[in-house]
Automatic annotation (TrEMBL):
Source species: Rhabdobacter roseus
TM annotation in the entry: none
SUPFAM superfamilies recorded: NAD(P)-binding Rossmann-fold domains (SSF51735)
Protein name: NAD(P)-dependent dehydrogenase (Short-subunit alcohol dehydrogenase family)
Family: Belongs to the short-chain dehydrogenases/reductases (SDR) family.
Pfam families: adh_short
GO BP annotations, alphabetical order: monocarboxylic acid metabolic process
Residues annotated as domain Ketoreductase: 6-191
Gene3D superfamilies xrefs: NAD(P)-binding Rossmann-like Domain
Source organism superkingdom: Bacteria
């Protein structure tokens, strides 16, 4: 395991894309901290991940809506493993409704988690990533360039996240920190109360995004794919 001295942090890592990323990174020999707003959920997911490689997963309670919460979580990772090399800002939520029906609470929760939460993550992680010459990866969406009815809050958060990620990339690259945003299409997850099933076999799988992350961090230091759009290769006709 050539990457055994490396450490990653995945927000929203207890299920879906976040869990798939953590799974692949641990298989690559990378230690991974995953977060949830519930310590019990984080511990349960970390226990499953530790079955891949014992001691390689750490479950943390953290809320991306709080900068202090993110700073505390990053400090816990540094206290545990002494370094941070890769930060994957994955935590997200979706509220979908026509603007006439969307509540103020739904709007703010979407923006606070999907966009402001990534700002908080960056502020918390950048000092450690500068020390390690590390990588900050955001999980956006094809909804960050493609708008649709009922998607006002989600589109706004993901359009904003794509712009934030690209600007951040230019802000920090001379500090030796890489930034990439990954923009998946249909992924087989529990997102928006969906229950994955065999009917989702055509969709991108969470571990597919994990493999993209694993491939990105292996690229030569001089190369940076700053924005990656990912679609299912053979969707239903």
């Amino acid at each position: 395991m050539a990457e055994s001295n490396k450490v990653a942090f995945v927000t929203g890592g207890t299920k879906g894309i976040g869990y798939g990323i953590a799974q692949v990174l641990i298989q690559q020999g990378i230690k991974v901290a995953i977060t949830s707003r519930s310590q019990a959920s984080a511990d349960e997911a970390a226990a499953r991940l530790n079955q891949i490689q014992d001691g390689y997963a750490l479950g943390l309670e953290s809320d991306v809506r709080s900068l202090e919460s993110q700073r505390q979580a990053v400090q816990q990772v540094l206290d545990q493993w002494g370094r941070l090399d890769y930060f994957i800002a994955n935590a997200g939520i979706g509220h979908f409704a026509p603007i006439q029906e969307m509540t103020d609470e739904q709007w703010h929760e979407t923006i606070d988690i999907n966009l402001t939460g990534v700002f908080h993550s960056a502020k918390a992680a950048l000092p450690a990533l500068k020390d390690s010459q590390g990588y900050f990866i955001t999980i956006a969406s094809l909804a960050g360039t493609n708008f649709f009815a009922g998607g006002a809050a989600y589109n706004a958060s993901k359009f904003g996240l794509v712009g934030f990620s690209q600007a951040m990339m230019m802000d920090v690259r001379n500090d030796g920190i890489k930034v990439t945003t990954i923009m998946p299409g249909s992924v087989a997850t529990h997102f928006n109360d969906h229950e994955p099933s065999e009917k989702d076999a055509w969709k991108i799988q969470p571990e597919d995004i994990g493999q993209i992350v694993a491939d990105l961090i292996k690229l030569p230091a001089r190369t940076l794919p700053s924005k990656i759009e990912v679609r299912p290769s053979m969707p239903p006709k």
